[in-house]
Amino acid sequence: MQRRITAEENKPVDVGTALESKIALVNQPRGKELIYQAIAINKAGKGTPSNIVTVTL
Fold this sequence. Notes:
Elements: E1 2-5, E2 13-14, E3 33-37, E4 41-42, E5 45-46, E6 53-56
Antiparallel strand pairs: 1-2, 1-3, 3-6, 4-5
């Protein structure tokens, strides 16, 4: 799982890894607009990034 703070970061930051279809992220910034996307990885390499989700916590 990758995250980017829209007004502060140009590159996504890795914020978690999941081996199932759900993930619980902790210690995420509050009061800022955040963009999240998932990227599947297997032995063939990285997949195409998912659609982005924009949230404010």
